[in-house]
Amino acid sequence: MKLDDFKKIKLPDNPGVYFFKKGKDILYIGKATSLTDRVKSYFSNDLIRTRGMLLVDMVAKAEVITFQETGSVLEALLLETELIKEHKPYYNTKEKDDKSYSYAVITNEEYPTIFIIRGKDLDRKDQKHYSHVFGPFTSAMQLRNALHIVRKIFPFKDEKCIANSGKMCFNASIGLCPGVCVGKISAKEYKKEVQKIALFLGGKTKQVKQTLNKEMIAYAKAMQFEKAEVVKRKIYALEHIHDVSLINRENIKLPSNRAEGEMRIEAYDIAHMQGQHMVGVMVVMIDGELVPSEYKKFIIKTVKSSNDPAALREVLERRSTHSEWGTANVIVVDGNDVQKNVARDIIKNTAIRILSVVKDDRHKAKDILGEIPKGVAPEDIYKINAEAHRFAIAYYRRKQRKNALL
Length: 406
What we know:
Blueprint lengths: L2 H5 L8 E7 L2 E8 L2 H6 L6 H5 L1 H9 L2 E6 L3 H15 L2 H6 L6 E6 L6 E5 L11 E8 L2 H14 L16 H4 L13 H15 L3 H17 L3 H15 L24 E10 L2 E11 L2 E2 L5 E4 L8 H12 L10 E5 L2 H10 L6 E7 L5 E5 L8 H28 L1
Parallel strand pairs: 7-11, 11-12
Antiparallel strand pairs: 1-2, 1-3, 4-5, 4-6, 7-8, 8-9, 8-10, 12-13
Helix pairs in contact: 9-10, 10-11, 12-13
């Protein structure tokens, strides 16, 4: 197909899924924020550089382009995944090794857990542990962002939540888990919510809305108006999803050896007791998951008083000498503009976003200073900051106990 052929096709400036076909055969399926802009990009002069020879070959063989509009970018992402799984187009399956894809899974247990897993870690011989497997998704970040959007509407249990443990998990405290950990919801009611998530992830948005409408009417008839209002808000949220950031990086090729879409966040914290036994730590999060194997510990050597900014400076200076640790996209420090400015003074790479988490009088996180990048949830910033604090305190206590024995 040539540019002149494309110009005869009328595509809407709306989200959706597009199909390159040769006769009745589907060669390639893709998703788009804007169908017209996205499909037009396949006829640009730099297609070889941006997408590679494989897709150049696909465009040359294509005879027809069709499309299916969706209500949101999120729906386009989920529908694309289901359609690729169903039709297995040649050029989709050739683009990437299946083991490098990501999947969303729902476990088969009393209180189902929902999480992301890499294709290489998905045990296809023992899938009885999963009630549903969604994927493959070509971008782990897009999938994580999609689940974050879904989770705001339908809170769910992740791997870090222990059902009925009596201890509220972090996500329950910020409204992203329905309180499975502290018995706020029964297994029966929770499974009803998980079923809605399964339908939505399977691209059946219309069916989810129908289910919610029936629930809202039933609650209203039973004069349970508060529950009816909660359901009404879910319906509204589904119809007003703001999700452009899900696929706004689809044309970008990252220059590093990091897999496309991966986001590395590093957080730092200092611990001491009135300047004694001062230590610092670095903790790491990649694509929303904490990675303990990447954590680092520092014994502060140049600061002999209660000067946290000076100690942070030492840690960041020492970290900057270790290029083999990789490069962060985001740096999170504990404190205010003082700590944030220290970090910027050390980190010359302006592409690295620097954020600081401000605490209240009880040392509880209350605000984030700095612009949070698209694709990063504020909850992740609070989460990694809390993990850095926990790790720093634990390291300080071990060091203190060791010194007490000497």
